[in-house]
Design goal:
Blueprint: H1 4-7, H2 11-19, H3 26-36, E1 44-48, H4 54-63, E2 68-73, E3 84-87, H5 93-106, E4 112-117, H6 127-148, E5 149-160, H7 165-173, E6 176-182, E7 193-201
Helix pairs in contact: 3-4, 5-6, 6-7
The structure holds S-adenosylmethionine.
Length: about 210
């Protein structure tokens, strides 16, 4: 847990405040998108682990008026005009998928262009346990992305580096034409987090495919 006092000298924290972003994490997505070009104007984006909403604000700015953002979190999230927010536990994958599909259908969509996940467990301080819980969340994000991404869609998900990281990277690599791991400058020094990027989702036959 980062103490408020530690944030005082943090340039990303300060800039987030100045620019009206709900979290300093907003800069991580901005940096990831500048490097990998995952989100484009007009895209439909699914943001997993979205609260308090910094990534959602960035995604909404990138997709513009012709795009859509759907944000999911366990925690309640304050509304952002134009954004659909779902309160759901993403490890309950079928339940979450059903809820997301219902919202997409109302918008006349069946699939999404991009899935982004900044999911993180509440840190326990026990490194191995936290790495394990991070990998469970990232795997659920990948499973949900695999059910909802369009052919050629894009993906980015946080995972804590450690025993489960290589397996997760391999699973992403098996589903996307291009895979990289990236640590944006806005990630804190010494943080175990890393983002696995997948571009060009290759769809296996799914029931609802077009
Ligand atoms: C680091 S925060 C996300 C910050 C966000 N990207 C932003 O920019 O504001 C991680 C989020 O993951 C959410 N989370 C953790 N476990 C979850 C789960 N099982 N289902 C849904 N959300 C979960 C937490 O509630 C928390 O809001």
């Amino acid at each position: 847990m980062v103490k408020r006092a530690d944030l005082k000298g943090d340039r990303f924290y300060k800039s987030a405040k100045e620019l009206g972003y709900r979290s300093r994490s907003a800069f991580k997505l901005l940096q990831i998108n500048t490097k990998f070009g995952l989100i484009r104007a007009g895209d439909v984006v699914l943001d997993l682990g979205a609260a308090p909403g910094g990534w959602t604000q960035v995604a909404y700015g990138l997709v513009g008026d012709n795009g859509q953002v759907l944000s999911v979190d366990l925690q309640p999230m304050e509304n952002i005009a134009g954004i659909e927010i779902l309160k759901s536990d993403i490890t309950k994958e079928q339940e979450t998928l059903t809820a997301i599909k219902t919202v997409l259908k109302l918008k006349g969509r069946a699939f999404v262009d991009v899935v982004i996940s900044d999911l993180s467990p509440q840190l326990s301080g026990a490194r191995d346990y936290d790495q394990f819980r991070s990998s469970v969340l990232s795997t659920s994000a990948l499973n949900i992305a695999s059910a909802l991404l369009k052919n050629n869609g894009n993906f980015a998900a946080k995972i804590f580096q450690g025993a489960y990281y290589n397996e997760f990277y391999k699973c992403v690599k098996a589903k996307f034409r291009y895979t990289r791991a990236h640590s944006p400058a806005a990630s804190r020094k010494g943080s175990a987090e890393i983002y696995v990027i997948g571009k060009g989702f290759t769809v296996r036959k799914r029931k609802d495919d077009f």
